[in-house]
Every structure is written in C-alpha cells, then in structure tokens.
C-alpha cells in the first residue's frame, strides 16, 4: 500500500468544467493530464489551429505540474474524423522533443463535438 498522496492541481474557476475534473493530477512522479479537447480552442473547427493550441495548453499544464513536453510518456489522440490524421500529425510532429512519446490515435465522438483531443501522461 502506498503512503503517497495525490496532488490535484486547481482548475481555472472560470472554466466551464470547473468542479468536474482537475486539469492535472500528480501521483509519485507521474503526471496525468485531463484531456484537452478542441472546444476550448479559439478556432475549434480548424484541425491544425486546434492541434497547435491544445498542444500549447498541454505544455502549459505540464510546466505548471513540474514536468515538460520532454517528459511525456504516452499520448492518446482522439479525432472526430480520422481524415484529419495527416494534418494533426504535421502539427504534432516535433512538439515533444527528441524522443517521441508512445501514442495511440482513436476516432471517437468527443465532448461538445470537439474535432480533436489529447490525453497526456508524463513524469516529473
Ligand atoms: C474535456 C474533458 N477532459 C472531459 O472529460 O470532459
């Protein structure tokens, strides 16, 4: 049994999902980010702009949690339409440093009809 406590990072109180989930949870030296989905992006229906924006948000959350894009272990990418795979990859490529994290990409319905979402796990 672990004696470690999880640390739940605070969500912006103005975020529409405040109170539902934490943006990040740290347990031991592992950081679990809540999925970032494109309804929060300024251009929510543009796959390239939304991908860039969400990966910027991922980077901010990781830095806030004491991690970084270079310490990402696993990414799950959710696409509403797998036809966006190439455009998403072109923006995604190179965002995580020299060693690309493990990744799974799934076509899926997403909250608020988002076109893309990123679920990231990293270490400290
Ligand atoms: C957007 C998100 N992370 C959720 O679970 O609704």
From TrEMBL:
Pfam families: Ribonuc_L-PSP. It comes from the Bacteria. InterPro entries: RutC-like_sf, YjgF/YER057c/UK114, YoaB-like. This is Enamine deaminase RidA, house cleaning of reactive enamine intermediates, YjgF/YER057c/UK114 family. It comes from Terriglobus roseus. The lineage of its organism: Bacteria, Pseudomonadati, Acidobacteriota, Terriglobia, Terriglobales.
């Amino acid at each position: 049994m672990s004696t470690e406590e999880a640390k739940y990072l605070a969500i912006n109180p103005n975020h529409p999902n405040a109170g539902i989930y934490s943006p990040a949870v740290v347990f031991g030296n592992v950081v679990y980010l809540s999925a970032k989905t494109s309804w929060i992006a300024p251009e929510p229906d543009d796959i390239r702009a939304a991908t860039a924006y969400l990966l910027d948000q991922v980077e901010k959350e990781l830095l806030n949690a004491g991690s970084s894009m270079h310490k990402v272990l696993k990414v799950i990418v959710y696409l509403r339409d797998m036809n966006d795979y190439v455009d998403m990859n072109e923006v995604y490529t190179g965002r995580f440093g020299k060693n690309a994290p493990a990744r799974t990409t799934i076509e899926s319905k997403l909250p608020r009809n988002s076109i893309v979402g990123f679920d990231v796990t990293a270490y400290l």
